[in-house]
Each structure stands twice: as structure tokens, then as C-alpha cells.
Amino acid sequence: MYIKQEDLVVGQIYICEARNFTEGMWNGHSFTYNRTKFGSTYPDTEFHYDDGAPYGTVQPLRIAEELGDG
Fold first, then answer.
1. Do the domain assignments include residue 37?
2. Measured CA angle at 53 (ends 48, 56), to 5 deg
């Protein structure tokens, strides 16, 4: 079972089941992560599974690390 979009915290890093990554940060709209392709690394995004096909590819499974107190 994955974490629903409305239960995610902006800025939190999650362990995910996704096309191109396993750890990404929720920015309130999509997951951001660093993608490596053809020897280059660059920031990329993928959308939550709840957004539906064909773009909703990420199922966040659990929190990767807790947010600090600031």
C-alpha cells in the first residue's frame, strides 16, 4: 500500500516505487529526484500515482528521513 497524495508533506523525502528512482522529495505537485541518463545527472520529476495514467507513476511507500526542526 502506498501513501496517498493528500497525506504527503512538502519537502519530505520518501522511499518510492517509480519508473526512474527509489528516493524522491515531494514538492507539493510532483516528486523531484536526480536522474542519471547517458552519463549525465540532472534534476527530474515524476508525478504521484493518484494523478492517474499515463503520468502518475510514483507510489511513495515510506518516509526516508524525518524533517528537521529548522
1. yes
2. 15
- The number of angstroms, rounded, from the C-alpha of 17 to the middle of its chain's C-alpha atoms is 9
- Per the structure, the count of domains in the chain is 1
Instruction: Tell me how crowded residue 36 is: count the other CB atoms within 10 A of its CB.
Output: 11
12 lies in which domain range? 5-65
Q: What is the pTM of this model?
A: 0.86
Contact (CB, 8 A) for 20 and 33: yes
Task: Kindly give the confidence (pLDDT) of every residue in the chain, 70 residues in length, as a single tens digit, with 9 standing for 90 and above.
Answer: 999 999 999 999 999 999 999 999 999 999 999 999 999 999 999 999 999 999 999 999 999 976 555 5
